[in-house]
Every structure is written in C-alpha cells, then in structure tokens.
Amino acid sequence: MSKNIFLIGFMGAGKSTIARTLREEYGMRLIEMDEQIESQEGKTISQIFADNGEAYFRALETRLLECLEEEENTVVSCGGGVPMRRENVAAMRRSGTIVYLSAAPETIYERVKEFHTRPLLEGNMNVEYIKALMAQRLPKYLSAADVTIETDGKDAGTISSEILQSI
Prior knowledge:
This protein has about 170 residues and is of the alpha/beta class. It has eight helices and five strands; from the N terminus they run βαβαααβαβααβα. The radius of gyration is 15 Å and the shape is globular.
C-alpha cells in the first residue's frame, strides 16, 4: 500500500489498537501521534497541556502531520482532537486516506474509565460528558472522513479488514 491511513475518532475508539493490527498484519509503518509528540517534547500529553496549554499541543499535532506528507505505507493513530483543525485534515488528505473509527459513548467509557492519561476527561469520566464531547466533535469527524467504520462489538482483525476493503 502506498498511501497512508490516518485513523481518527474519539479517544477510546480503538485507533491505537487498530493501528497496531494494521502494522502487524499488513507490514505498515506505525506512528502513534501522542507517543511521537511525547517523545519529541520529553513530556507526557498531560504535562504539555499543563505547562504549555492546549493551543501549543494542537500546533505540535499539525507540525507532525505536515512532516508525514512525504511518508508512504504508514498508519497514523491520530489524537482525538486532530480533525478539529482544518489544516490537519488538509495535511492528512494530501498524503492518505482518513478513516473515522466510530464507537458508542458507553463503549468509549468502558474502554477509558481506568485510565488517567486523557486530560480532557480528567474530572469528567462519565458517559454523559463523553456523549456531549462526542456530539461536539462528530460533525468534524464525519466531514474529515473518507471512510467510516463502526467498532462496537468487533475485533481488531475484522475492523482492519473492513478498513482495507473500504479503501
């Protein structure tokens, strides 16, 4: 595969899991955006938010996507907020296919409730808050996506196969 695949969706939708599956099953290079940014900055995402603010973090995401435009056969697990910026969507479109991984708010809650690495959910770890934030982001996810894949009740292999069949 020459084009890149950009996985977008709400936190906990399965982007990291599906990216790893695509790497393992199809030999794609994997970039986990949050991990890449943490490595570059020498801080966790939570520390970046606390020390530099969300705007700074969002600029780092944009810069990373622009650097990926020369890559091929790469699957990119994007942070949940990546499609909120028009310039991010444009950068992804220039070098690949954007796949929106969809999941119900209840599924998201079950997947993330034990983790404290999501700054936007700290202090708001409940289905109602997740549902509200998802509703805010949904129009951007849908307008950015070339392909939408439902993840509820499916295993990673099935989802990965659906992605490749769709693109």
